[in-house]
Amino acid sequence: MIYEVREYVAAPGRLGAVLDLFTSATVPMLDKHGMELVSAGRTMIGEHSFGELVYTLRFDDLAELDRKWNAMLGDPEWVAALTAAEADGPLFASMRRRVLDAGPATPGQ
To answer: Which of 37, 38, 43, 102 is positioned for an S-S bond with 56, CB 3.0–4.6 A?
Structure first.
């Protein structure tokens, strides 16, 4: 089991559009492509407070992560949603991703 953490810092004035895209297109597309959303929220304390969307996905392994992301990113429905969302300019100032193992401190193990 692995976890992917994705952090999206919104371009100035674009957090609302980032959150709209996430709820209206990203979450349905994650579901369509069989990706398990573990958590999602905005950073409250720390760098990029209230200007960043962070979410975590769970995968069996790196091969599954790559296969499912490639399918989603190539999906014409996703491409159209992202293109429409960025019609008024870029949504993101930056994006960071990390992949974590389940580790020895995983609750319930």
So the answer is: 38
Q: Are strands 2-10 and 92-101 parallel, antiparallel or unpaired?
A: antiparallel
d(CA 86, CA 95): 15
Kindly report the pTM of this predicted structure.
0.88
Backbone angles phi, psi at 38, to 5 degrees: -90, -45
List, in order, residues 6 or more apart from 102 with CB less than 8 Å away.
1, 2, 3, 109
Question: Which residue type is seen at 23?
Answer: T
Q: What is the pLDDT of residues 29-84, one digit of tens each?
A: 999 999 999 999 998 887 777 689 999 999 999 999 999 999 999 999 999 999 99
